[in-house]
């Protein structure tokens, strides 16, 4: 499982959770700041699998 962060057309951030076979498992709500999206990802990771990879597509 891994996370992918995106920047939407309205400059907000969201992320998807993908399985190891690259299928989207879930899509988050939008966040005003990238920090908020990352904080949510870290909360999820701590509850599930702290070794999950994060891919940042906003750069």
Question: How are the elements arranged and paired?
Answer:
Layout: E1 2-7, E2 13-18, E3 24-27, H1 34-47, E4 53-56
Parallel strand pairs: 1-4
Antiparallel strand pairs: 1-2, 2-3
Q: Which terms would index this structure?
A:
59 residues, alpha+beta, 24% helix, 4-stranded mixed β-sheet, Double Stranded RNA Binding Domain
Shape: globular
Determine the N-to-C terminus distance: 21 Å
Question: Percent of residues in beta strands?
Answer: 25-35%
Runs with pLDDT <50, length 5+?
A: none
Structural class, judged by helices and strands? Answer: alpha+beta
Residue share in helices? 10-25%
Q: How many strands in all?
A: 4
Domain count, please report it: 1
Named at the architecture level, the CATH assignment is 2-Layer Sandwich
Provide the CATH top-level class.
Answer: Alpha Beta
**Number of helices, where a helix is a run of at least 4 consecutive DSSP H or I residues:** 1
Order of helices and strands: EEEHE
Major β-sheet, in short?
Answer: 4 strands, mixed
Written account of the structure:
This protein has 59 residues and is of the alpha+beta class. The chain has a single domain (2-56), classed as 2-Layer Sandwich (Double Stranded RNA Binding Domain), CATH 3.30.160.160. It contains one helix and four strands, in the order βββαβ. It has one helix at residues 34-47, and strands at 2-7, 13-18, 24-27, 53-56. Strand 1 (2-7) and strand 2 (13-18) form a beta hairpin. The relative contact order is 0.31.
